[in-house]
Amino acid sequence: MSEEFGPDFITVTDEDGNEFELEHIDTLEFNGQTYMAFFPAVQGEEKGDDVEELDLDDEESGLIILKVVEADGEEQLSTLDSDEELELVYQQFMEALFADEEDGN
C-alpha cells in the first residue's frame, strides 16, 4: 500500500558512522537468502551530502545490493561476501527489473 504514496526510503549508517539515504527498488530471494536493491537517494544541495562518493557495490548503474542478515535477533542489512555473489545477485535483479518493464508495456 505504501507504493501508492511514492518510493520507500531508508537511512543506512556505514561502518564509519556516516548516514545516507537509499531508495528501495526491489527485494528478491535467491539461494535461500533475501537481497534488497537500492539506488542512492538524490538529496538536495541544501543537505550537502555527497552520495556519489559512497562507492557501494555497482558503480556503473548506481545500484546498491545488500543482503538481509540476522544479528542479535534483529534483521539487518549487510554487504555481500564476494564479487561472485554480487554478480549472481545483480543478474537476478536485472532479470526481474527487465521482466517488470516488459510486463508494463
Helix count, DSSP H or I runs of 4 or more residues: 1
Strand order across the largest sheet: 1-2-3-4-5
> What's the count of strands?
5
Helix content: 10-25%
Q: What's the shape?
A: globular
| Average pLDDT, all residues | 79
State the end-to-end distance.
22 Å
What portion of residues belong to β-strands? 35-45%
Which regions contain 5 or more consecutive residues with pLDDT less than 50?
45-60
Q: What pattern of helices and strands is seen along the backbone?
A: EEEEEH
Largest sheet: 5 strands, antiparallel
Global structural class:
alpha+beta
Rounded to the nearest angstrom, the radius of gyration is 15 Å
Can you describe this structure?
- The chain has 105 residues and is α+β, with helices and mostly antiparallel strands.
- 21% of the residues lie in helices and 37% in strands.
- The protein contains one helix and five strands.
- The protein has one helix at residues 83-104, and strands spanning 8-13, 19-30, 33-40, 64-71, 74-78.
- A five-stranded antiparallel β-sheet has the order 1-2-3-4-5.
- Strand 1 and strand 2 (19-30) form a beta hairpin.
- The longest helix has 22 residues, at 83-104.
- The chain is globular.
- Residues 45-60 have low confidence and may be disordered.
Brief overview:
The protein is α+β, with helices and mostly antiparallel strands. It has one helix at residues 83-104, and strands at residues 8-13, 19-30, 33-40, 64-71, 74-78.
